[in-house]
Amino acid sequence: MQRTSTPYGSETELSESLHTLPDAAESGTPRNYLRQSLADTRQNTAQQCLSFSAKLYKPRNLVFTGITALKLNAVELPWGNLPQEEFHILASADSKRSHVSSAHFMVWTHSTGKMQSISVGDSRIWFTDPITTWAIIAKFLSQVEVIVLADAICRAGARSSPIGKQDFQDYLNLDDRFIGKRKCNDAMQFLGAPLDSSMEMRCVMALLRYGLERPETGYPITVATLGRTVHVDMAYPEARVIIEYDGDAHRLDKKQHRWDERKREALRAMGYTVIVVFADTFSDEQHTKAFAENVARALGVELPGVPLEPYTALLNDQLLAEDRLRQRKCRARKKHGSRLI
Question: Region 298-321: what's the mean pLDDT?
Answer without folding.
Answer: 92
